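ok so dumb question maybe but i'm new to this and my supervisor (M.) told me to 'just get the structure for inosine/xanthosine triphosphatase' and walked off. so i did the thing. is this what she meant?? sequence i used:
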Amino acid sequence: RTFCVFPTSPSMAAASSPSPLLLARTLRVVVGSENPAKMEAVKKAVNAVRASMEVEGDIEVVGFKAASGVSDQPFGEEETQKGAENRAAHTRESCAQKGDIFVGLEGGVKSTGRGLEGFAWMCVVDKEGREGFGRTGSFILPPAVAKLVEGGMELGHADDVVFNQIDSKRKNGAVGLLTRGTLSRSDFYHQAVIMALIPWAHPALYPLTSASESEE
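this is what came out, is it supposed to look like this??
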């Protein structure tokens, strides 16, 4: 058999080079929420990405109560994604001196033929205007919970009513309650945050747009 070995082109090498931000000895991350589950998810995700690159160093994760600019209980993909984007942008605007990257997380629901689905969007931004998005998987809410949410109650409060909990959204949330702890709220968000970090893992493949550059 004859095997052909093709040399790696400079463009291919550049495409595999991660952003210097991820390689920094100390990376400062500001999360647009003070919710412990969300902060833990971001910390685990950033640590996992840096570990895959064999980066030695520390990450500092702090929370900030960011405004979502959407309803307290977002409905639909668009509103939920916009909430995550707004939280990330508000965090960057308010905490620019405290962080290197800024993260917004927003949980939402949407009506489907199977019932009311729960899911969440993540948005990561940096000071240059680079932006990344990731989405969790979806799960069907129980009819008892869905009825309360459709009646105007936030999902977290509806969970407390149905499952007889107190402030469950700051713990394992709906997904933790429904999976009996098999999947924590932090783990539910974890992979989606990793997806939102892809533009920093391969910045050459995700060039800054003119719109992002004009923000500077």
